[in-house]
Amino acid sequence: MILDEVIRRAQMYGFLAGAFLYPTENWLVDLPVLAPILEDVGLSKLRPSTFNLELSDLQAEHRRTFGLTGSLCYETEIGMPNEYRQSQEMADIAGFYRAFGFQVGGRLHERPDHLAAELEFLYVLSLKEAYAVEKGISEHAEVCVEARRSFLRDHLGRWISLVAEGLARVSGGDLSVQVMDKPYIWLAYLAAAFVQADAHSLGLSLETRRLEEMRPTPMGPDLSCETCPANNQPEE
Fold first, then answer.
1. pTM for this prediction
2. CB 221: neighbour CB atoms within 10 A?
3. What pLDDT digit, counting tens, does each position of 23-75 carry?
4. Could you tell me if 204 and 155 are in contact, meaning their C-beta atoms sit under 8 angstroms apart?
5. In whole angstroms, how far apart are CA 179 and each of 49, 69, 75, 168, 184?
6. How is the chain split into domains, by residue range?
7. Are 195 and 126 in contact (CB under 8 A)?
8. Which residues pair with 1 in a beta bridge?
9. 25 and 58 in contact (C-beta within 8 Å)?
């Protein structure tokens, strides 16, 4: 195992995790750093596009892109047959996080099953693996590798391709275009391709789902929009 490879993987997962959140800094300026990483993992065809956007424009693009997609960026909001299965999956995700001291929170808080949170967990796993490799603690490094394999197989790897496809369809993107002109559609395809490449390096063949076969996870019977306080506001 080469330390540089683990560090580059960590860099990529860290970049992706931050970029999917509502931008407070312009992550587009970091794109040139990605080119050699993508070259190393055989994804040079998805090399960074040239997006000439200021931070305010990038923020508007984030609102346009994710404001139209509903709950697409939450793993348990799509494909779960009922709220009980949703709770089980959420508990399993949280179990991975607890085992490695990863806590979801901070200034930009998201649920544990949000795409950015799952990507950040893999970033943390890769950092821990890099530390173990550097210190020569092979058993600790292997624990991180096995956790990454399991998390990709059971969680992120099962649904990330749906995000890319769903964003492209909602935004009217051409699924055959390799370098798209919308930064968040490009980012979603990049993330899906990188996860696939990482899984392949672990000997994993990820289950591929079709977007047409997926349905929103049903709300529990005690949940209703009629109980929302915003629904009870007087009309102006």
1. 0.86
2. 8
3. 999 999 999 888 889 888 888 888 777 788 999 999 999 998 888 666 789 99
4. no
5. 6, 21, 25, 12, 11
6. 3-232
7. no
8. none
9. no
What single string gives the DSSP state of each residue in 137-162? -HHHHHHHHHHHHHHIIIIIHHHHHH
Q: Is there a contact between 130 and 157 (Cβ–Cβ < 8 Å)?
A: no
Q: Identify the burial level of 100 via C-beta atoms within 10 angstroms of its C-beta, where 0-12 means exposed, 13-18 middle and 19 or more buried.
A: middle
Integer Cα distance of 75 and 119 in angstroms = 12
Alpha helices in the chain (DSSP H): 3-20, 31-40, 55-66, 83-99, 115-135, 138-151, 157-170, 183-201
The CATH superfamily assigned to 3-232 is: TorD-like (1.10.3480.10)
Are 153 and 206 in contact, with CB atoms under 8 Å apart? yes
Q: How far apart are the first and last CA of the chain?
A: 64
CB 168 within 8 A of CB 178: no
Q: Of 12, 30, 41, which Cα lies nearest the Cα of 183?
A: 30
**Number of Cβ atoms within 10 Å of the Cβ of 216:** 12
Ranges of residues in the chain with a pLDDT under 50 are 175-179, 223-225, 227-236
